[in-house]
Each structure stands twice: as C-alpha cells, then as structure tokens.
Specification:
This is VWFA domain-containing protein. InterPro entries: VWF_A, vWFA_dom_sf. It is a single chain. By secondary structure, the protein is of the alpha/beta class. The protein has 10 helices and 6 strands. It has a 6-stranded mixed beta sheet with strand order 3-2-1-4-5-6, with helices on both faces. Strand 1, helix 1 and strand 2 form a beta-alpha-beta unit. Helix 1 runs parallel beside helix 6, helix 3 packs parallel to helix 4 and helix 5 packs across helix 9. The C terminus is likely disordered.
Length: 276
C-alpha cells in the first residue's frame, strides 16, 4: 500500500508577512497538487495560522484524509476571516484560539506547541508506515533569542517533536530571517529536519513528500541524501557557514536561554559595540 504522511503547516500570518502570503499560498498549493489523486488517501494536511494582537488570534483548522481540495478552500479564505468549510462536506471542524495578547515571538512558540496537540495518526496504523512532518513558515524571531524568554520554549518543543517522531522543516521568508537562520536550521536539525530558504520551498517540499509516498521511503532515508545543494540554490543561505554552530546548539543547549547565552548574547554585544 505504501507509506502515509501527516503534514502540519504552521503558517506565520502576521502583518509583516502580508507581502508574502499570496506567494506562500501558491507554494503550498503546488505541494498539494504534486500528490496524485490515487495517492491522496496517503496524505493528510493540517494548518495552524498564528497572528499578532493587531491581527486575528491563532486559528487551527483540521483537515482529515481525502480532503486536500478542502484545504485549498481554506487557504483561499482571507486571513482576517474565521470561516470553516461546512461539516456536511466530511471535513473535521476544529478551532483552537490562543491568547490574542501574545506578541509575535510568544505566538510562534505557542503555535509550535499546537503542532504537538494535533491528532496525528498512529505509526504503523493498519501495518502502514506513517511519517509525521511539520513545516514552519515564518520571517519572525522566536521569543528568547534576542530578549528575555517568555512562553512556550521552541527548543524544548523541538525535543518533544523528536521524541514523538515529528520531523520539523523550517521555511525562512524575507531578508530579516537571516539574523537567525542558524537558529532555525538547528531547530529543524534537532528533529531530523532541515531549513529551506523560501525561494526553494515548494520544489524541496514536493520532492520530499512525493518521495515518501511514491517510493515508500522514510524521511530519514530522504534526509541522508545531500539535499543542501538543492536547498541553497538561488539563495544566499549556506549551510557550511553555520554547520558548526548548528551542531553546537544541538549538543550543548537544552533551552532557549542556553541558545541565547551561548550564541546570541555575544552577537548582540558585537552589534552594540559597533553602534556605540
């Protein structure tokens, strides 16, 4: 029968992302469209949208198998609209509202925490191997990296994801992400995943998901191939420049406070001295 895959899209819908939302949705649709109709019972997608207090609160929309078209309809809704497809279309209807008083950094951690709370299918259900994939799409800096930590700790959550067999891929959007792309790279690697610049996200994600479904390949087998030549294509991202920092974060850090203390306090002091 082949492999199955549950994929959670964790989408930053804050005001700063407004210029990119249309192209993000197009890339997500491209990934969906690469799943053949005959294989769509093998793929299930969910969406978590997180927003700042000036926008709408976090909304989680659950989409069970066989309903990729329904997810496309959800993506077509305006971001300010909290609407759901009618239940009679056989679509699970679920809404989780997180505190609208959180700032962007806190919301990112809270949204990642919701990834753990999704109703993931069981591995080996019906003797079919299941892959669990979470995709974080953001241009934001997580809480605790450049300031005092508050809220859900993304680094601790990545440990929980790894323990639950959930692989995280982070898609970095916009130029501002470059100030912390080494952190996001480490966050993903900590779960067995990787970081992708936005320009290559649709191509890489569709290839990974398609390989898992078509070739009955595990994510770990996909990852063992050297993907970084393709991941880095047409972008300024170079994994080799941050490889040592990524490995040190994974081996030496337990919390966001460790990450900031070991890697970002020093960077901030350099920036401060340069502007003094």
């Amino acid at each position: 029968m082949g492999n199955t895959i549950d994929t959670a899209i964790c989408l930053d819908c804050t005001s700063l992302m407004a210029l990119h939302i249309s192209s993000i949705k197009e890339k997500i649709r491209y990934v969906f469209d690469t799943v053949p109709i005959s294989k769509r019972d093998s793929a299930r997608f969910s969406v978590i949208q997180f927003r700042t207090p000036n926008d709408q609160p976090v909304t989680t929309t659950m989409v069970p198998p066989y309903n990729i078209h329904a997810l496309e309809q959800i993506l077509a809704l305006p971001l300010c609209q909290e609407e759901y497809i009618d239940d009679n279309r056989d679509i699970g209807k679920s809404c989780i509202i997180l505190s609208s008083y959180m700032n962007l950094q806190e919301l990112l951690g809270a949204a990642l925490r919701e990834v753990l709370n999704l109703p993931w299918r069981d591995t080996d259900e019906n003797d079919v191997f299941l892959e669990k994939l979470a995709v974080l799409i953001t241009d934001g800096v997580p809480c605790g990296l450049f300031d005092a930590f508050n809220g859900n700790d993304p680094w601790e959550i990545s440990n929980d994801m790894r323990n639950q067999g959930i692989t995280l891929i982070v898609v970095g959007v916009g130029g501002s992400i470059m100030q912390c792309d080494d952190f996001y790279c480490a966050l993903a690697h900590n779960t067995g995943g990787f970081y992708i610049p936005f320009i290559n996200a649709d191509r890489i994600l569709s290839s990974v998901i398609g390989t898992i479904i078509h070739d009955q390949t595990t994510f770990n087998q996909v990852r063992t191939h050297d993907l970084y030549e393709e991941i880095e294509k047409n972008s300024s991202f170079k994994y080799s420049y941050m490889k040592s920092r990524v490995k040190c974060m994974i081996h030496e850090c337990q919390t966001m406070n460790d990450i900031r203390r070991f890697f970002y306090d020093h960077r901030l002091s350099i920036q401060y001295d340069a502007h003094s």
